[in-house]
Fold this protein.
Amino acid sequence: MELLDKLTILADAAKYDVACTSCGVNRTAVKGQLGDTMKAGICHSFSADGRCITLLKVLFSNVCSYNCSYCVNRRSNDVPRTTFTPRELAELVIGFYRRNYIEGLFLSSAVLKSPDYTTELMCNALQLLRSSYGFRGYIHAKAIPGTSNDLLVRLGVLADRVSLNIELPSSESLRLLAPEKGRESTLGPMAFVRDGIKANYQDKQLSTLKRTRFVPAGQSTQMIVGATPESDYQILKLSSSLYRNMELKRVFFSAYIPVNTDPLLPSGIETPLLREHRLYQADWLMRFYEFNVDEIIGADDPFLDPLVDPKCNWALKHIDQFPAEINKVPYEMLLRIPGIGVRGAKRIAMARRQRSLRFEDLKRLKISLKRAQYFITCNGAYAQGVVFDPTSIYAELAGETKKRRFKGVLDGQLQLLDC
Amino acid sequence: MDSFSYLIADAELGSFSTLVDDAELIYLYDGTLEGMLSAIFAAYGRHEDPQNIVVADDLQESMLCSYVPIKTEERYAARVKNGIIEKLGDRVYEDVKRVFLSDDTAKGGILLRYLRYAFKAGRWSFTHLSEPPVADFIELRRQVENEAHYMLMFIRFAHLENGIFYSHIEPKASVVPLITDHFAKRLNVQPFIIYDSVHGLASVYDTNRWWLVSADDIQLPAQSQLEGDFQALWQSFYDTIAIKERTNPRCQRNFMPKRFWGNMCEHIPPELRKQRPETKTPTEAARLLAANQKLLIEPQ
């Protein structure tokens, strides 16, 4: 088979993987070797679906011995199957990297024979890329649930980021849809990698120069949303505990897209992207805005409101803490104002030290007042025309969302919410 | 007298603007950083407050402005530079240089007003984000830095017959000086040229060091045999990785504005692309090429 066909098959098989980030680690360039990495990561293109392309995202092989219901590569699907040779993969990465198409490689794989057998093949390919080709760019490697610790160590030294997919938000769902992947076979290796990172970090203090770095960009995971009945509450609780207990850098969500027909799966119903979007907003609140998961969502109301974002939702439920006086409230409270981001909060905190701010100053600071205007005062005054009343604020914000997102056709689920 | 009657008076006297008190004063400079700094020096020296400082060659004269050409003087420019570094810090001088790379025709006035404010308000003036002179300056710097970052993202190199990797760009600010270091470090094993045809500026890296060349035109050898193959592979990857059910052109263009597409090979329409790689796999081609060129890292 020609390389072009292999690449097409193995990229097509990898496209549903959501993680495509090249961030988390700075590695400076070395004379004579190709590549470096930047802490913030760099996107290199955007595909027709609007997703960022930063890494060459491929499977090493799509020959799978598992039969997970939701997956395109399941054993029982009749699709063309192929496997890269390490050399082919390395040539692709180097050729693309030299042309500034990519930051590096995202390598996943179907389970060829066994998790250990597959991981060893992946390690060999990465070894060739790192040692023989001297590649210093970014590598994100998927670890397959059930991989042995020895191989995880090898993988973690070659890659910058390692991820194990939770796949589904509960063990019952996992048992039902991915019977070969148990909860333990994912969480076990995840905990092992976490401990490895910690030990490696402590070791760093001893010898900074010669140390081998283990998973320097940390771990991530992903789960499919909407293929199984779990609520947003369950999903966010789970991701919060993954951040806390597994010390993950990222939890990715992927709105379910039906690729297979299976009696166990919701037939033909695509999960709306808006649900994924709201989950990411909640995730952001936990990671960058110092929100606790229980502040965002509760068991009594277990789905995020599609019409207003989770931060607005929180603010409307805690309207007694508002309006926030821009010139007085502490930085932590600035962060909690809907429509004000981390950068905006920092700018306000910086600028108000010099003199007190008025509404026209906020515009100069590039603060968008679209949402913020309802929740703030400047020197005691509300923005012009703002009525500080939770019900009317909710109506305004929800109306805005409807105008922006649901103009034209409404799909079934959203119609229900609309009435 | 209102400004209208001034104009009439001017017309009668046959001399424009110098007699008009409220005519906008504009300084003219030669387009170099030294020229700009000399003009800023002149504004202090002449006790004047020019509205803007513009390149003499690009001038479109207006009846309501009076123009003063300012001569570029190395020693005056150096005094302004040293003044900025001493009083405001290295970082501010770096920012001044960045703002200077902007294509915005108002940049001269923005620079002058910022520096006037900063010299009065002191070292921490860059935090005074609500002051218009500071806000304008920071905004212009942001625009230049954004454009530079777009280049780090979207530059595409093509491998030429003579072994050099070549990239053509059309940025909205003259950012070649800001981005070349990034590529020289990262791609240090390959010689490359980045050519900005809008500003007539190229950077050349020879695997040891890089330098800038001003160039209105550039003659290129053909692309290497390998190049078409890699472009075809990349195009195929690019098309495959998109999830068809989720096509969202607005979101795509939001992140990757159309003005960059002309220089990115994944956006070459299918009918203009090379059909399939001619060589069986680039692996083979790479080995052939590596035999007579040192440019590819030869696997051990």
The first helix of chain B runs from residue 3 to 13. Chain B touches chain A through 63 residues (CB under 8 Å). Confidence is low (pLDDT under 50) at residues 1-19, 284-300 of chain B. Strands of chain B lie at 24-29, 52-55, 65-69, 158-159, 165-169, 192-196, 201-205, 210-214.
